[in-house]
Amino acid sequence: MAVSIYEVATEARVSIATVSRVLNGRPSAQVAPATQKRVREAALRLDYYPSGVARGLARGRMNTIGLVLYYEQPSVTSDPYLGPCLDGILAVHKRDHQNTVLFTKSSWAEALEHLPSFCNGHCDGLLVILPHTDSAIIGALAGLKVPFLLVGDSRDDPDLVCVDVDNVGAGRDAVRYLIGLGHRRIAAFCGNAIFCSSGQRLEGYRQAHEEAGLLYDPSLVRDGSYFPAPGSCDASVRALLDRPLAERPTAIFCFNDNIAIDTLHALRKHGIAVPQEMSVIGFDDVPAATAVHPALTTVRQPIRAIGERAADLLLAQINGAVVPGQKDLLPAQIIVRESTSPPPKLE
Amino acid sequence: MAVSIYEVATEARVSIATVSRVLNGRPSAQVAPATQKRVREAALRLDYYPSGVARGLARGRMNTIGLVLYYEQPSVTSDPYLGPCLDGILAVHKRDHQNTVLFTKSSWAEALEHLPSFCNGHCDGLLVILPHTDSAIIGALAGLKVPFLLVGDSRDDPDLVCVDVDNVGAGRDAVRYLIGLGHRRIAAFCGNAIFCSSGQRLEGYRQAHEEAGLLYDPSLVRDGSYFPAPGSCDASVRALLDRPLAERPTAIFCFNDNIAIDTLHALRKHGIAVPQEMSVIGFDDVPAATAVHPALTTVRQPIRAIGERAADLLLAQINGAVVPGQKDLLPAQIIVRESTSPPPKLE
DNA sequence: TTGTAGGCGTTATCAG
DNA sequence: CTGATAACGCCTACAA
Fold it and tell me: Which stretches of B90-153 are assigned E, i.e. beta strand?
């Protein structure tokens, strides 16, 4: 067992209260210099350090933030979202001397089961990263009395605090950009409906159409999945190409880069030249976006900044400085590369 | 404040002892089924979950493992060692329901300062990743009574438990491979001396020379740095090329891929063809090793497996099943690509 | 300036 | 089978 405050008190011939006072050095707590010296020396001699747990229990504060995230892939660190997000969070915690505890499970169901015993007392607050909209986790979290914040999710709930990219704005900008190039028929390849980002990006797509006076054509909007799955866009691409040329879209807004890259492959298979015959724009700007041919035009999320902002905001929230329902939406940025161009001229 | 065990006891009309018994469900602790039911329902009704901190204090076990690591780069997750290592550790912790708390600081000095208050009680054990040999951190750690284990470091200390790649063996294999190709003069570009791996790889280099009856030539061994620093190998390369052709080495064993890649650049600048005029072998097998031309022959460390093994072993150590001084050295594997070939024939 | 004592929320060891 | 009660190690009024 480690040495406790009692040993130090005995060694320094004072009470444990005095030891505590000296070692916590509050300005108000006045201790005679000689006593202070005795205590410090005793602590040093005995190699004493206060127990974080006991202190946490007494103070009700652990200086620890929990990250709740789930991932199926074997690697967290190389996940294009989780990785940078983690980096941003860690940077802030490093600066503010907060410990970061990772609560990783293989499913939200499993997370749900173990979460309460984990975060109760253990963490001062929770950062919930990319939750599924269909998971009961948010409800469970609300039951615990721990402050928490959603990262990469900005669902429309007046009670939740969120930090996310401005998906609606980003979707609108992407489509505006395509419209600006001259495109008039633009398809949308959506992501998983369990992430609220997909619906929001679609809303941006809709808004851009509306403001440009373009008709919103539901047959141009296809469901899809954010996760890499080679060939998953074949059907959607084929459906587009099956249309008469005059009704065929000249651009595709893919809701993330996985989708975009798969779409590129599908188009190549069908002999469609990108960007000459079809423009493709992605979302995220993953590393692979520059490795593909043609290099992908895409909407870059400031993921690391989202992580940093989330960490900052949660700390503020723990200190009671955040209004419930606050949503911080960070702007995205269009990175123009080679997969977009004006539409082909009809001859 | 969250609801405590007392409320549940009151609600269920039993003592807190009984609540604790029911909720921890030990086989020995026998509670009447009817009582059990009452307690469970009360807990459910009140939305009660035990406090991990209080439990930790009482049990002396937090089910939490601390990772001590320092990094200067802004990104942990994309670090070619830290990333995979983290993945391996997290995978094991996920399986064994251990929480992982990251203790990241910007320097070992800073880590040293905050470490005691952090890990005392907070963590059941510590994984210390890539410590510097000149840091006092190991001594400080020994002072705390927390079990710990070194990852990516297998220094020669009879008290320390370590998990690492077998650097000596890997260095020996790399040089054996070059000798097998016909090389007789092989240079070594070392890493930072503050990592014990560098000295160990050099020892392997030495052993391979000895067993082949080759003279160990100190002028062929150059100091260097593991960290990316374009141009840092220029001087070493030039020193090699300045030698008379007959004394010039025909191969270079670089102690990591950063060094190898920089060496490739330096050689190209001097118009030396790789591998025709000079073979180059690296260490680590980072992603960039395949992106460079010629693709790098290198020694692959099983980093993820090291992380997994370390997590496993620490858990065993916490449970008292590990002898002090135990060293687990995992084998490396040579990945042959395009940067090595037999030496040029003298004409 | 210093000490006493109660509390933080559990677990675990006793009796009963 | 169940209930007091003493740890666990620290903080912090309140007294002295």
Answer: 99-105, 125-129, 148-151
Look at residue A29 in the predicted model and tell me its pLDDT.
Answer: 62
Q: Which of A46, A94, A100, A286 to mutate to test the interface with B (most CBs of B within 10 A)?
A: A94
Rounded, the Å distance between the CA of A16 and C1' of C3 is 9
How high is the pLDDT of residue B15? 92
Domain boundaries, chain B: 52-164+306-330, 167-301
Please name the residue ranges forming H helices in B145-273. 167-181, 196-211, 234-241, 257-269
- B115: tokens are 């470490």
Confidence at residue A282, expressed as pLDDT on a 0 to 100 scale: 98
Residues of chain B with pLDDT under 50: none
Of B134, B156, B194, the residue nearest B327 (C-alpha)? B156
**Peptide bond connecting A228 to the previous residue in cis, omega within 30 degrees of 0:** no
What is the reported pTM? 0.89
DSSP SS3 for B329? strand
Query: Residue B153, exposed/middle/buried by CB under 10 A (0-12, 13-18, 19+)?
Result: buried
Same fold, B52-164+306-330 and B167-301: yes
**Window 53-82 of chain B: CB closer than 7 A to strand C:** 54-55, 57-59
Please report the pLDDT score of residue B142 as a whole number: 82
| Nearest-nucleotide field for A48 (CA, C1') | D9
Distance (Å, whole) CA B257 – CA A317: 44
Between the two ends of chain B, the Cα-to-Cα distance in Å is 85
Write the CA distances from B331 to A31, A133, B299, integer angstroms. 58, 44, 10
**DSSP for B71-98, written as a single string:** --SS-STT-TTHHHHHHHHHHHHHHHT-
Using N-to-C axis directions, what is the helix angle for B167-181 and B196-211, rounded to 10°? 40
| Domain boundaries A52-164+306-330, CATH class | alpha beta
Give residue B229's identity as a one-letter amino acid code.
A
Distance from C-alpha of A281 to C-alpha of A288, rounded to nearest angstrom: 14
pLDDT of residue A254: 98
- Determine, for residues B101 and A103 on separate chains, whether the beta-carbon distance falls below 8 Å: no
Q: What is the pLDDT of residues B174-215, one digit of tens each?
A: 999 999 999 999 999 999 999 999 999 999 999 999 999 999
Closest CA to B328 of B153, B201, B85, B173: B153
Q: Cβ(A76)–Cβ(B86) under 8 Å?
A: yes
Question: For residue B23, what is the enclosing H or E element?
Answer: helix B16-24
**Which positions ≥6 away from B72 have C-beta within 8 Å?**
B106
- Decide: A119 and A146 in contact? Cβ < 8 Å: yes
The percentage of residues in chain A with a pLDDT greater than 70, rounded to a whole number, is 98
- DSSP-derived letter for residue B111 is H
For residue B104, the chain A residue with the least C-alpha distance is A94
Regions of chain A short of the pLDDT cut 70: 1, 27-29, 346-347
DSSP string, A69-117: EE--SS-STT-TTHHHHHHHHHHHHHHHT-EEEEEEESSHHHHHHHHHH
Q: Determine the pLDDT at residue B27.
A: 63
What count of other Cβ atoms lies within 10 Å of the Cβ of residue A242?
A: 8
Residue A294 preceded by cis peptide, ω within 30: yes
**Hunting for tokens 């979950």 — which residue is that?**
B49
CATH topology of domain A167-301: Rossmann fold (3.40.50)
Which chain B residues contact residue A101 at CB under 8 A? 64, 99-102
